[in-house]
Amino acid sequence: MEEGAELVVEARAPGKVILSGEHAVVHGTAAVAAALGLYSTARIRHRPLSPGTEEFLVLELPQLNVHVTWSLKMIEEILDPPSLQYPNPLVVKECSDSDMTRLGSFVVKQLSWGAPKGTVAAVTTFLFLYTSILGLQPITVRVTSDLPVGAGLGSSAAYCVCLAAALLDLAATFDSPTQAITTPKEQGSQKLADTGNWHDVDEKNLELVNKWAFEGERIIHGRPSGIDNTVSSYGYVVRFKQGELMRLHSPMPLRMLLTNTNVGRNTKALVAGVGERALRHPAAMAAIFKAIDGIAEEVVSILLSPSNPGLDSDDEHEHKDEARSWQQLPDECLPKSDIASVVRTKEEAKLEELVEMNQGLLQCIGVSHVSIEAICQITAAFKLQSKLTGAGGGGCVLTLLPKQMSSTYVEVVKVDLEGQGFSCFEAAIGGHGVQVRQELNPDGGDE
Ligand SMILES: Nc1ncnc2c1ncn2[C@@H]1O[C@H](COP(=O)(O)OP(=O)(O)OP(=O)(O)O)[C@@H](O)[C@H]1O
Ligand SMILES: C[C@@](O)(CCO)CC(=O)[O-]
Ligand SMILES: [Mg+2]
């Protein structure tokens, strides 16, 4: 690397929706999840300083209001773990209980008094990944996200995946400038200001990113199944069971509306609560987990079913005309029953029924919430099925939308939901996983 030049590495990782199987998956059953077209991005700037100059680590997490600067000397003195001298990005290690306590108490002292637990966990996770993968290097790290934090869309996994990928990419570049974790021929000094230039991470390194991210998730979550970091790393639609990933190349396009209850919750507490209920009622809870497993496996077979018909072009035409004629009518003339009678394919109807059953079982295990139930009721009036997605307890709810349903109809449903104070959005489902890009600023890249 040229002297004085600044290297900028960025990695972005998607959030996710769980179609079926959350919570039960922690207890070993199957679940189905898809990547969401909303990303968390870690941006790392590294500029080697001249010898004798004091070096710093800067961490910026604007969504949590974290802006901290540490001198590397201070980190070395206070933390003093051997891994600081010998970081090994290729050997994934757990954050031991003693490391967790040591890092956690350092972080609590560094943050302003009374910082929320989520902030302590995010900074602790960062320090663990940074010291283990990179060791003491003077860098400035900033993580931003399109995802709502703590709302069931996998923000914690996307945070861990983008950090792990960016740190690994930088570590590989230090090791050998042509060995970054994307394919070497794709590397170059592209300008990050462009909207593009993102490169997929190659298969071998995806596994490494995913494993480090899982260790990060363990700090934030306590007992993650690994589904969230896996779908954020690999992207697309996946079936996940007991740590095993199966990529689903489904011919069935998934369409859904996401609604944020705007009720805050935390995955760690919800997962722990389900674990405690399972200890109190082992037989009943095992039966519920088994039922959820059956639902998830049926979702998989529907998604993979070759009989999944696409919309044929005549149907689409008819449907657009219908939508246009509705657009000319005032809202109060749109009877719910007309929206309810939108045609479903056989597969869509089955999926809807499974969503309804899954939500009922999630309520049984204690992770629903009045706000979630309210959304389910509002959408049921349009004969649309909804379920919580992610850890529940608040957060986001997904509503399946039949392919034949016009956007005008979707707007009508949104009006009812938003009228009750919820926030709705549609996002691309089943897109790519983690991606990386680099830029070298020869002039030092002052920002
Ligand atoms: N952009 C971010 N910046 C800093 N920390 C983040 C960011 N996104 C997530 N986190 C960390 O993840 C925590 C939220 O994780 P949590 O697992 O509770 O919710 P989630 O991942 O959004 O939902 P789910 O696990 O149900 O999909 C935050 O409190 C914080 O510690
Ligand atoms: C609730 C949970 O099943 C999904 C959270 O998105 C937890 C996990 O699988 O790690
Ligand atoms: Mg999470």
UniProtKB/TrEMBL annotation:
<keyword id="KW-0963">Cytoplasm</keyword>
<dbReference type="Pfam" id="PF00288">
    <property type="entry name" value="GHMP_kinases_N"/>
</dbReference>
<comment type="pathway">
    <text>Isoprenoid biosynthesis; isopentenyl diphosphate biosynthesis via mevalonate pathway; isopentenyl diphosphate from (R)-mevalonate: step 1/3.</text>
</comment>
<keyword id="KW-0752">Steroid biosynthesis</keyword>
<keyword id="KW-0547">Nucleotide-binding</keyword>
<dbReference type="InterPro" id="IPR006204">
    <property type="entry name" value="GHMP_kinase_N_dom"/>
</dbReference>
<keyword id="KW-0808">Transferase</keyword>
<dbReference type="InterPro" id="IPR006203">
    <property type="entry name" value="GHMP_knse_ATP-bd_CS"/>
</dbReference>
<feature type="domain" description="GHMP kinase C-terminal">
    <location>
        <begin position="350"/>
        <end position="404"/>
    </location>
</feature>
<protein>
    <recommendedName>
        <fullName>Mevalonate kinase</fullName>
        <ecNumber>2.7.1.36</ecNumber>
    </recommendedName>
</protein>
<dbReference type="InterPro" id="IPR013750">
    <property type="entry name" value="GHMP_kinase_C_dom"/>
</dbReference>
<comment type="similarity">
    <text>Belongs to the GHMP kinase family. Mevalonate kinase subfamily.</text>
</comment>
<dbReference type="InterPro" id="IPR006205">
    <property type="entry name" value="Mev_gal_kin"/>
</dbReference>
<keyword id="KW-0753">Steroid metabolism</keyword>
<feature type="region of interest" description="Disordered">
    <location>
        <begin position="307"/>
        <end position="327"/>
    </location>
</feature>
<feature type="domain" description="GHMP kinase N-terminal">
    <location>
        <begin position="134"/>
        <end position="171"/>
    </location>
</feature>
<keyword id="KW-0444">Lipid biosynthesis</keyword>
<dbReference type="Pfam" id="PF08544">
    <property type="entry name" value="GHMP_kinases_C"/>
</dbReference>
<keyword id="KW-0460">Magnesium</keyword>
<dbReference type="InterPro" id="IPR036554">
    <property type="entry name" value="GHMP_kinase_C_sf"/>
</dbReference>
<dbReference type="InterPro" id="IPR014721">
    <property type="entry name" value="Ribsml_uS5_D2-typ_fold_subgr"/>
</dbReference>
<keyword id="KW-1207">Sterol metabolism</keyword>
<keyword id="KW-0067">ATP-binding</keyword>
<keyword id="KW-0418">Kinase</keyword>
<keyword id="KW-0756">Sterol biosynthesis</keyword>
<dbReference type="InterPro" id="IPR020568">
    <property type="entry name" value="Ribosomal_Su5_D2-typ_SF"/>
</dbReference>
<keyword id="KW-0443">Lipid metabolism</keyword>
